[in-house]
């Protein structure tokens, strides 16, 4: 059955991939995005596009929508430390308005992009949803605050909601891929080195208690993440706030990721070791058992070579556009 969805942040990386998956599944999609970090050309063909802010969601939501998928947020950890107010206003303030608009329009289902950053430095890995939440930066704190707001909305007003806590999202889906500016994610940064757009890759610390001394992270293919969103829409129940981690449950070290990029691209990747960054845990790996049980989700593209190959294909196709924009 075809449904109609509002996708906030659908001109950004994850939102554009999920919007494409919804359209491919035969649904109708309206993207609401202010293009603050997103790209108009990232919005998939077939989606209606509204250039606007979630703070004004009430102008665009009406009872014909079946659900909202909420990706719109600022998500640069470093910037959230230097300009926390910007993050609280947008991520929390904006979501307050969005929830009120959903209530007013009687749109009663929500899927929200939460993050592993809500857990901070984990005491044990793999990380389950019951782990203590102790974000180490304002970005993670704003996302946790929104999770709390959503729980309240479910309890008080019967919202059906699923928060998906992504670990490290990577890869691409055809024309939709990762283009953050500034880029802070490891795989696109290494690919910039492979393309000659960056001289070398910094490895922050090689003396962690991990097999090769570099940090270990859980990389999840953005198309697998998109599958989970469609399953979450089906699993959402009135009055319940379901929270699920999304990761592969496999960690890869920074050195393993760099080596995989060398293999996939066939290009040299100069690297240098830099001091550890404050607040970087040695290992962050998800337990995705709950997503498997409650959503019936299974990652289909867990191999790091596949994730990197798709990200590389996208980076190669997007490079000419990026050069044009820089001129
Ligand atoms: N990429 C990851 O690895 C990752 C990991 C964990 C969680 N997340 C979360 O997933 C979501 C999407 O991340 P992304 O990597 O695609 O980021 P992105 O910056 O590419 O996308 C965010 C989009 O939201 C839009 N936006 C921001 N504020 C807005 C507002 N007030 N009104 C309307 N549009 C607004 C931006 O223009 C952008 O298109 C974010 O909520 C992020 O916190 C991402």
Question: How would you describe this protein?
Answer:
The radius of gyration is 19 Å and the shape is globular. The model has no long low-confidence stretch (mean pLDDT 95). The protein starts with a strand and ends with a helix. With 327 residues, the chain is α/β, with parallel strands linked by helices. The protein has helices at 13-24, 77-82, 84-105, 138-157, 186-194, 222-235, 254-265, 289-295, 304-326, and strands at residues 4-8, 28-33, 48-51, 67-70, 109-115, 160-166, 168-170, 201-204, 216-217, 219-221, 241-246, 252-253, 271-274, 283-284. Bound molecules: nicotinamide-adenine-dinucleotide.
Molecules bound to protein:
nicotinamide-adenine-dinucleotide
Please bin the fraction of helical residues: 25-40%
Q: Strand order, main sheet: write it out.
A: 3-2-1-4-5-6-11
Low-confidence stretches: none
Order of helices and strands: EHEEEHHEHEEHEEEHEEHEEHH
Mean pLDDT: 95
Shape: globular
- The oligomerization state is single chain
Distance between the termini: 46 Å
State the major sheet: 7 strands, parallel
Strand content: 15-25%
Specify the number of helices: 9
Using only CA atoms, what is the Rg? 19 Å
Structural class: alpha/beta
- The count of strands amounts to 14
């Amino acid at each position: 059955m075809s449904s109609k969805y509002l996708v906030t942040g659908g001109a950004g990386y994850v939102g554009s991939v999920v919007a494409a998956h919804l359209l491919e599944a035969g649904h109708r999609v309206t993207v609401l995005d202010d293009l603050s970090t997103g790209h108009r050309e990232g919005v998939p063909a077939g989606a209606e596009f509204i250039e606007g802010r979630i703070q004004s969601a009430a102008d665009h939501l009406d009872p014909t929508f079946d659900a909202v998928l909420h990706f719109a947020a600022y998500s640069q950890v470093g910037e959230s430390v230097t300009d926390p107010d910007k993050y609280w206003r947008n991520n929390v303030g904006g979501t307050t308005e969005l929830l009120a608009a959903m209530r007013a329009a009687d749109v009663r289902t929500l899927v929200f992009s939460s993050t592993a950053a809500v857990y901070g430095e984990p005491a044990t890995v793999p990380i389950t949803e019951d782990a203590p939440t102790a974000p180490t930066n304002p970005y993670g704190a704003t996302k946790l605050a929104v999770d709390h707001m959503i729980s309240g909305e479910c309890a008080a007003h019967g919202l059906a909601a699923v928060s998906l806590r992504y670990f490290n999202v990577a890869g691409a889906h055809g024309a939709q891929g990762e283009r953050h500016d500034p880029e802070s994610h490891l795989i696109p940064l290494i690919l910039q080195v492979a393309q000659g757009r960056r001289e070398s890759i910094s490895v922050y610390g090689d003396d962690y208690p991990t097999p090769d001394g570099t940090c270990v992270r859980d990389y999840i293919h953005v198309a697998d993440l998109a599958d989970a969103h469609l399953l979450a829409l089906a699993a959402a129940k009135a009055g319940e706030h379901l929270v699920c981690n999304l990761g592969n449950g496999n960690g890869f070290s920074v050195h393993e990721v760099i080596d995989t990029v060398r293999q996939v691209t066939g290009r040299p990747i100069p690297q240098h070791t830099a001091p550890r960054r404050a607040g970087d845990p040695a290992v962050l790996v998800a337990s995705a058992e709950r997503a498997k049980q409650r959503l019936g989700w299974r990652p289909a593209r867990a191999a790091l070579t596949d994730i990197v190959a798709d990200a590389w294909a996208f980076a190669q196709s997007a490079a000419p556009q990026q050069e044009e924009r820089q001129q």
